[in-house]
Amino acid sequence: MNKNQKNPFNTPKGYFDSFEGKLMDKLSKTESTIPKGSGFKVPDNYFEKFNDHLNGRLENEPKVIPLFSIKKIIAVAASIAAIVFISLEYDQYASNKLSFSDLANTDIEAYFENNDFELSPYEITEVLPVTNTEYSDFLNSPIQSNNLLDYLNENVSDFDEINIEDNE
Amino acid sequence: MIEEETLVLELKTKDKQAQAFEVLVNTYKERLYWQIRGIVLSHDDADDVLQNTFIKVYNNINGFKGDSKLFSWIYRIATNEALNFIKQRAKLQGISDTDYQDKLVSNLEADVYFEGDEIQLQLQKAIATLPEKQKLIFNMKYFQELKYEEISEILNTSVGGLKASYHLAVKKLERYLKED
Fold first, then answer.
1. I want to staple B139 with a disulfide (CB 3.0 to 4.6 A). Which of A109, A128, B38, B107 is the partner?
2. Does B78 have pLDDT greater than 50?
3. Could you tell me the residue range of the domain that residue A143 belongs to?
4. Among partner residues A20, A30, A58, which is closest to B58 by beta-carbon distance?
């Protein structure tokens, strides 16, 4: 088909469609330097015996076990359910657990009164937390004079040793 | 010769499977062998890969949807098995695929199942220098004499692209053989 009106030449029908094929055929005829055979051979009767060898392999082929069998899925689901159940029970148990703040002050006092810990005041100071104790705690809670007199009465045998008059 | 569709149907039917599989093996074993041998070069390796190919076909026949021809599906499996075999062997030996293939070609001289002359050995050396796809196309077209349309379906490449690749491969091989 002549698409250019100025061009008086024409081509046979389908020329361009078959051009590539004809070119490649021509090119493929220039393979003279390449030998035709590959040089490979197979052992005698190899193809005749191949089926028997293959059947032997297929019989010994381990059965394919599906990665996600029904039994495995059930086992995994049961394990997950058990873990969830145990953790929920544990949370419930943990939420019911008593803490120190739940104890009544009277119970604590009774405990200390009825049990002899054999701790000296110095040892108690080592045990008691002092980090939250401020100087202001002492100022806001002044020692009552009655308590002071009771303490002195019980613990001091010789009042002269105190020498109150000299220090006043 | 049994129709391909019938063969596929029988391969998927339990009581006819064994017989149909034998037909399949008998139909394709020789053609697939040469396809594989052209890649792995040694007979023992080709035998291993060919058996693996048929085992894979047997185990996966139910997954064959018929989108392509059975012939090209099996050919594709064989080609991939052979290429993977080369890659795995090269990895095991800690060398590149190219170095491993060079090694395969040099082993041919002592191979009892290679009886090629000097020019045929040179041709194998020359083929080893080609890029993977050109190598496949050349082997399929030149030695196995497959049609471009068949190669096109196996390698999922246009016929035009195959012709160009084949022509390039031939030119490279000729140059290699003339220079050597």
1. B38
2. yes
3. 100-148
4. A58
